[in-house]
User: Fold these one by one.
Assistant:
Number 1:
Amino acid sequence: MTDAHRPVTPLLDKVTYPSDLKQFNDRELRQVADELRLETISAVSVTGGHLGAGLGVVEIATALHAVFDTPRDKIIWDVGHQCYPHKILTGRRDRIRTLRMGGGLSGFTKRKESTYDPFGAAHSSTSISAATGFMMARELGGNCPEGLGDAIAVIGDGSMTAGMAYEAMNHAGHLKKRLIVILNDNKMSIAPPVGALSEYLTRLYAGEPFHDLKAAAKGAVSLLPPPFREGAKRAKEMVKSMTVGGTLFEELGFSYIGPIDGHDMDQLLAVLRTVKTRADGPVLIHAITKKGKGYAPAEHSPDKGHARAKFDVVTGEQKKSASNAPSYTKVFAQSLIKEAEHDPQICAITAAMPDGTGLNLFAERFPNRCFDVGIAEQHGVTFAAGLAAGGMKPFAAIYSTFLQRGYDQVVHDVAIQGLPVRFAIDRAGLVGADGATHAGSFDIAYLTNLPGFTVMAPADEAELVHMVATAAQIDDGPSAFRFPRGEGVGVDMPERGTPIEIGKGRIVKEGTKLAILSYGTRLAESVAAAEVLDTRGISTTVADARFAKPLDHDLILRLAREHEALVIIEEGAVGGFSSHVMHLLATEGALDTGLKIRPMVFPDIFIDQDSPANMMKVAGMTTDHIVQKALDALGIASLDAQRA
Ligand SMILES: Cc1ncc(C[n+]2csc(CCOP(=O)(O)OP(=O)(O)O)c2C)c(N)n1
Ligand SMILES: CC(=O)[C@@H](O)[C@H](O)COP(=O)(O)O
Ligand SMILES: [Mg+2]
């Protein structure tokens, strides 16, 4: 690496687009892959982001682009968090150091970004379905500007734990058309993968019939029978020999090839060339890889370098966050542990996000009461419903964006049956570098419209402690509380939570002319805005709603009665808290008196990745925005206009 950690990459420098790879022989392609790995490490060291998964597919990306003809052939990366090497090979190297930044490259595949990203992703396990769609579009003469060639899904072993992957294979196996799936098996999800499938894949790798091939996977070519050692014949024979009957994938209608060493370019090129020339139906290539491959700090870390803040390439040391306040996630986990210490019925569920949700801490303390169900939000929700029906007190800790996948289960299995599942909804609101796909924008709307739900949001981390205690006590129906990514505001913390009266908000600051009603963690900005307004002679009340359902009727009607204008703010899309407040006010006739009302919700766009602060600016939710909205409601010229 050079001083600025820019690696020396003479062959990669000759590659702008995948067609440039055609100039290289196999030995040179190996070198391209090595250089690609260094470039990926270098780029992520300055941007932060998903490192380990990309390092594990450097050879697969190089081999796929060398053998197939993209963008006519469609490579669909599942989740897309491993696609940085693919981006470098597909015309985006000059922008690779803008990954996940405002105005920069997305950290996932994105159709708008490049014709080499035929399908956008970020949520897992969609690749085989999408590839099956491309496959049938090809068969039916679909109109695609780049043409329609092979459809190739690259899916990880973690993503293979989701039902959707099997729904897709079940369908593709039935359609019997040519489709290529590469199972990138690195024995890791974000955390070590769980479940019977993971054990099954391990058996495929370790089982007796594969011993020779396993040796081959480690590069011991001399251990292979002679035909495997010879050029084209070798490739053909290798594929033939690796295909064995009886795997789960074959039962689903796929030809199974493997396991192969996903870092061995010879094997990859041989297998892919053979599949390209010979496949006439669905094929699954099982490639064994290593997450974090080739970068010791990633390989040796427990998460194999899954996601990294900016880091020093030489030491692997990451840049620390400046805040001293605890993260909401940690506060949630610690509060739940406290409640569980007093209540043996409390248990917790995560869908493959033990660290992200803080449930790794809960699992350490209560291993028998914590369940990682894999990337299976749908199952996780219904499993929680079953636990609740069986008299347990389940807390399903799921990111807002991923709970979308379990929505029918929330409605059908939880809400309609009135089962007391507690949803701890992390990453509510705008999350920053992961961008639009990971924004928690919709949960307020999609939960408040369900009869019988209690829906809460803490304004700070101390309130979160109380809401965990509150949820623990709600036994007569489902409940949810949402909190954002990142650190709290640094308030004093209670030792243990005290349940809050259901459906009761609180006045934080009294005023007379204007009221700001905040739901969730925009309370601090609301108070700051009120102070600005006070200095301008606009006496401002601030209220913390705490509940979006049931609403605090008394509080809301009082705010409407006693103020000239009401600003309502929430970090979510239209249709949530503000809509319910306005519905109440309209129903009660409180709008007939001329109350001036201004809801502040996310704009009707998907907001691209940026710093959380910048995303809040785009969303129009800063202190300044609240002040301007209040002035607008009162018909007072904005501060900006006055200054001008
Ligand atoms: C529906 C959904 N749930 C959870 C996640 C969070 N998530 C992102 S990557 C990942 C692990 C994926 O594991 P695998 O497919 O094996 O890829 P690897 O990182 O090992 O390369 C998870 C759980 C997600 N993206 N989508
Ligand atoms: C790719 C993916 O979905 C996750 O890795 C996600 O990026 C995690 O986000 P957090 O960093 O907020 O846990
Ligand atoms: Mg994996």
Number 2:
Amino acid sequence: MVLQAIRYSRGSLQILDQLKLPHEEIYRDIRTAQDAWDAIHSMQVRGAPAIAIVAALSIAACIARCNKNGADSALLGPDMTGADLIYHNLRFLLTSRPTAVNLADAVKKLEKVVRQAQQQAGSTDYSINEAYIQAAEQMLVDDVRDNENIGIHGADWILRRTDTAFPAGKVSVLTHCNTGSLATAGYGTALGIIRSLHSRNYLKRAYYTETRPYNQGSRLTGYELMHDNIPSQMITDSMAAALLGLKRDAENISCIIVGADRVAANGDTANKIGTYALAVLAKWHNVKFIVAAPRTTIDLNTASGDDIIIEERKSLEVTTMRGPAVQRAEDGSLSIGDSVHEIAIAADQYGAWNPAFDVTCHTLIDAIVTEKGVLEKDESGEFYFGKLFAD
Ligand SMILES: CSC[C@@H](O)[C@@H](O)C(=O)COP(=O)(O)O
């Protein structure tokens, strides 16, 4: 069964609560823009493309119910209708998390759709709503298709450009954070490449970091890889250098593949905290370092990584951990409880710095894989995005 993190049908939106995974699979109704804002801000849903799509669909689901029943759409701004109501809610959702550009990109595109619908002769609230709903629904479809193409391009590139002289010509790769079905509309970006390698029988093993402090790796990537029976092994973030340093063929890492929250115009890439450290390690160990992202993550209006706003989250997310209680029986076997609790792993009064993302300089990146193909640096060592946006 395909893992479905976003359940959408016209008028209805549900998300799989990622704070409960992998221990509990709970779907939450998203009935309002406020619900979507809360889910994004609290990271019940996370991952750059998924954030954008849930925000867009939350408004679509509300106004679809409104178009059908003529009832209150349950959006913020009860004294507004049609275009104004949509603009207002899009702007509100934009404030939910700052670093990933996909949300801002979606808002810009959806505002354009609404403006064009307003300009149509005889436009009504109903016709504006319909135009919005169709555009938001199309984003869901497009993201899955784009990720499948990222998977194909990325796998092709890895098989061409990295040393595949491992048992049966297979490669092992390392990834960070969660970039799969849970972080996107489906299939995934960096994890999409891993899926593509696996489906062609070229994947020996996917290593993934636990990704402290939010543990997107251990909680979410592990869950997805197990779900799809992809051979995999978790490491803590601090084990990456040791893994790359291993000289055993069977463990040899061909490349590190990560996703992105925002790629600046020069290729500098903001992604989950810890990405930068992996890129430095890759350079030292002469291992390819690849960023996988749809074009919606490339922000040509941001000149370089220096201009990217990095979200800082609460210290508490570093000093606590979530999970079910573990009980050890007399024979030493473990049983894991059902419900998720939060436990302190440090005294919170010490405080902790908690940037959610870091920026990897483009000089450390070998290739950026998009749905349109793989971009490498030119002779002067610069990424040139022009041709990716030719259409
Ligand atoms: C396809 S997801 C790419 C990125 O969004 C992902 O690597 C990441 O950094 C997610 O961060 P998160 O804080 O979990 O939203």
